[in-house]
TrEMBL record:
PROSITE patterns: HTH_LYTTR, RESPONSE_REGULATORY. The lineage of its organism: Bacteria, Pseudomonadati, Acidobacteriota, Terriglobia, Terriglobales. SMART domains: LytTR, REC. Residues 151-255 form the HTH LytTR-type domain. SUPFAM superfamilies: CheY-like (SSF52172). This is Response regulator. The modification 4-aspartylphosphate is found at D55. The keyword Phosphoprotein applies. InterPro entries: CheY-like_superfamily (IPR011006), LytR-like (IPR046947), LytTR_DNA-bd_dom (IPR007492), Sig_transdc_resp-reg_receiver (IPR001789). It holds the Pfam family Response_reg. It comes from the Bacteria.
Length: 256
């Protein structure tokens, strides 16, 4: 069987090195090479590769952000490419993910290829997908809190970015978070409770189990008889504040 492969790295020399090392393995056909996450998502959608070589450290959208834009059943097998990053290497080892440390060692390359080929040959085996999902969940949970400055939004084969400053409010929609920006809604493949940990707590605040709002977008707050509140945003949007969040909201607003 022939396996389709895509090489994703922002350094052309690094891509050529991977492609050159794959030549002794005719069972792997390189169907594309990409220099950034946006092009990679388009190539994956077009070619449906069995395997990708993925650089972790890329500008604009890093390797993990790119993978998170793919649904679990869209993700191919991955061999990560990385410069020395002690935390990332520990995470890869814990979740039995294949990775190649730059500069790439030929022996290690052969080991990674042999290993991923054995897994690909196992019919009905979902080990690769389970390991990758577990790795991404772990990395998500351990990302530094309060530093989210932008969001990568996937729309078909296109990826665009929204800055945190543009977001007016956020609501939960199942396993997604809906970002409301200038009257438009953009879906982010991330549960609200995970996203909340990465938002700046001095800028965004939770007002309901399914709603987060940007403090400087609030224009009015009205108390209700049941101790809930109604918020009116500057664009006229009305949101309900549940009583369990109202005290913290009032305290936050007093400091705005």
């Amino acid at each position: 069987m022939t396996y389709r492969a895509i090489v994703i790295d922002d350094e052309p020399l690094a891509r050529r090195g991977i492609i050159s090392r794959l030549r002794p393995y005719p069972q792997f056909e390189v169907v594309g090479e990409c220099g950034n996450g946006e092009d990679a998502l388009a190539a994956i959608s077009e070619h449906h590769p069995h395997l990708i070589f993925l650089d972790v450290q890329m500008p604009e959208m890093d390797g993990f952000e790119m993978l998170e834009q793919l649904a679990p059943d869209e993700r191919p097998a991955v061999i990560f490419l990385t410069a020395f990053d002690q935390y990332a290497l520990r995470a890869f080892d814990v979740h039995a993910a294949d990775y190649l440390l730059k500069p790439i060692d030929d022996v290690r390359f052969t080991e990674a290829i042999d290993r991923v080929q054995r897994l690909l040959q196992m019919e009905k085996d979902n080990t690769l997908g389970e390991r990758l999902e577990s790795l991404l969940s772990d990395l998500h949970a351990k990302r530094p809190s309060g530093n989210q400055q932008r969001f990568a939004i996937r729309n078909g084969r296109r990826v665009f970015f929204i800055t945190a400053n543009e977001v007016e409010w956020i609501e939960a929609q199942g396993d997604y978070a809906a970002l409301h920006v200038n009257g438009k809604t953009h879906l982010l493949r991330e549960p609200l409770h995970i996203l909340e940990r990465r938002l700046d707590a001095s800028t965004f605040i939770r007002i309901h189990r399914s709603t987060i709002v940007r403090l400087d977008r609030i224009s009015e707050m009205q108390a209700l008889a049941n101790r809930d509140c109604l918020l009116r945003l500057k664009d006229g949007t009305t949101l309900r504040v549940s009583r369990s969040y109202s005290d913290r909201l009032q305290e936050a607003l007093s400091g705005v």
